[in-house]
Design a protein that fits this description.
The chain has 246 residues and is of the alpha/beta class. The protein has two domains: 150 residues, Nucleotidyltransferase, domain 5; 78 residues, 2-Layer Sandwich (Nucleotidyltransferase, domain 5), CATH 3.30.420.40. Helix content is 34%, strand content 26%. It is built from seven helices and twelve strands. Strand 3 and strand 4 form a beta hairpin. The radius of gyration is 18 Å and the shape is globular.
């Protein structure tokens, strides 16, 4: 999916945002006026093979250069360990090379923000594999701002279901995996977001980054790390080896 508005004026800040947390690698240009350009691709190619090309293309097609940007925004996760590492490493390198401020946004916050003015509780769920999900709960206020009401969680779907006692809108790629279980367990309390917004979008990462830009909430590119929530398989194996050695 590609959407580009060319040769138009915009109100600063102009933010280049990326999301590599799922198979839907995507980049976007956002400003105080809204979305200027967006490119999304569902692909099994590694993120490293398409991310830099996507960044260069969206700037070129929008008749923009790096020096015209005001900030960079990146999805910190949770999500794909490989995608998050590649995405953050790439954007950190660009931030250090250009001097542009760097902003980090959670994939779960990005997903929830696609449901402004929702009357029901929102639950974002991403497939964490191993019969677990990444999740968080949100509510939309009267201004259409989505506020998180829980910690970022990693748990089995049955644990999540046990914590739900009211109508809840589920959004995220975990819906593809656990929709039948949610329907069977929750009945009419289980509602589902439209299929076209089940993945985090760079456009919403950029939108949320606007507030952090105004508040000067920037990351240090040298020390910024992904929001994994759960340890990777490599980290788990390393801990086991160290435990065995001692």
């Amino acid at each position: 999916m590609a959407h580009v508005q060319r040769n138009i004026s915009w109100s600063p800040p102009l933010i280049l945002a990326i999301d590599n947390s799922t198979m839907y690698g995507n980049v976007a240009l956002t400003s105080a006026d809204g979305l200027l350009a967006e490119h999304t691709l569902l692909s099994r190619l590694t993120h490293s093979k398409r991310l830099l090309t996507s960044l260069e293309n969206i700037l070129q097609e929008s008749d923009l250069d790096w020096h015209q940007l005001d900030a960079l925004a990146v999805c910190l996760g949770p999500g794909s360990f490989t995608g998050l590492r590649i995405g953050l490493a790439t954007i950190k390198g660009i931030a250090m090379a250009t001097g542009l401020p760097l902003i980090g946004i959670s994939s779960l916050d990005g997903l929830a923000s696609q449901l402004p003015f929702a009357k029901q509780q929102i639950c974002t769920i991403l497939d964490a594999r191993k019969h677990e999900i990444y999740a968080a709960f949100y509510e939309s206020n009267d201004s259409g701002e989505v506020e998180r009401t829980s910690d970022y969680l990693v748990m089995e779907p049955e644990e999540l279901i046990a914590a739900i006692d009211c109508p809840t809108i589920f959004v995220g790629d975990g819906v593809n995996v656990y929709a039948d279980l949610l329907k069977e367990s929750l009945g009419a309390r289980a509602l589902f977001a439209p299929e076209h917004i089940i993945f985090p979008r760079a456009a919403t990462i950029g939108k949320l980054a606007l507030t952090q830009y105004q508040q000067k909430q920037f990351l240090d590119p040298a020390s910024a790390v992904p929001l994994y929530i759960r340890a990777s398989d490599a980290e788990i194996q390393l801990k086991k080896k160290r435990s065995t050695a001692t």
